[in-house]
Amino acid sequence: MGLVKMRLKKNGIGDTVFDSINAVLLLCLMIVTLYPFINTAAVSLNQATDTTLGSTFLWPRKPTWYNYQTIFKDHTIYHAFLISVLRTVIGTVTSVFCTAMLAYTISRKDFVLRKPISMIFVFTMYFSGGLIPVYMLIKNVHLTNSFWVYIIPGLVGAFNLIVIRSSIEGLPESLVESAKMDGANDFTVFIRIILPLSMPAIATVALFVAVGQWNSWFDTFLYNSSKINLSTLQYELMKKLQSANLSIGGSATSAFVNSKNMSSNIVTPTSIRAAITMLATVPILVVYPFLQKYFVKGLTLGGVKE
After folding, report:
1. Where are the alpha helices (DSSP H) in the chain?
2. What CA–CA distances, in Å, run from 85 to 15, 143, 224?
3. What is the total count of domains within the chain?
4. Distance of alpha carbon 231 from its chain centroid, rounded?
5. Residue 46 in 3-state DSSP?
6. Is 224 within the bounds of a domain?
7. CA–CA distance from 291 to each of 91, 204, 210 (Å)?
8. Are 195 and 202 in contact (CB under 8 A)?
9. CA distances from 104 to 118, 161, 170, 178 (A)
């Protein structure tokens, strides 16, 4: 008790007020951040016709799984989910590895082309060939109607390359020099020294790439729309959302008016949109805590002192 009183006297009233204001602001920020997600989950689990009446905030007033059942009635969703998982896992692993190798190469001061190659990648961040030239390029290299169109074009990203290169350049050069004096080649140095010590940047880039791969649907629309076995979850959900907006909007209201007994078996664009949002978001939310733990572990591994 005496220690607590001494600490309170030391902190003073000003510090206590400051901490209280910070706590209130952080609480408000947490509420503002979590409310849209909780509200979307409540709408997705609520009867569609009841949602149209409003006042669905944090809990579904008339719980139902029918919104999700409507989505999962189409069995192509399951195969599309598998394709999305495969492209996310394979795309993230290959992209991070290739980007890290290139970042290590252009971070070496004895590499004579490091500046020209870096400038080329930076140039691509500001200027693009456009949609049609990119499509023609993908078509000419025979990547259309192929699973690898999800992987190869995004192997190296300019922004991700800069992030990892900056992390590698911040490492002590003596680590690389001592490893080479012991007989290690560049690939051994990269695998055993550079990768473990660059885990904070690599974990960050992995998160960026994984979210981008998981949420991507436009490349499916451009290159694989004719191949149902290569369709992704996001593309299938997008098609369902479009069909809901076009055909369900008016019919749901009329059905609700004409037959109250059928109101529990009706979906609306709002309910479908909420269910689709949850299906697209939950997998990333499940994976993120594990990646965050790995990120913190990478920070510990990256703590090098000379």
Report:
1. 2-44, 48-51, 66-72, 76-107, 114-126, 131-140, 158-169, 173-181, 186-189, 195-197, 199-215, 218-223, 233-258, 269-301
2. 49, 20, 16
3. 2
4. 19
5. strand
6. yes
7. 16, 9, 11
8. yes
9. 12, 9, 12, 17
Judge if 85 and 215 occupy the same domain: yes
C-beta separation of 194 from 168 below 8 A: yes
Give the total residue count for the chain. 306
Domain end point (choices 195, 215, 231): 231
Query: pLDDT digit string (tens) for 171-219?
Result: 888 888 888 888 888 888 898 888 888 888 888 888 889 889 998 889 9
Place of tokens 């499509």: 135
The tens digit of pLDDT for each residue in 156-169 reads 988 899 888 888 88
Per DSSP, the three-state class of 48 is helix
Please name the residue that has the structure tokens 């960026």.
208
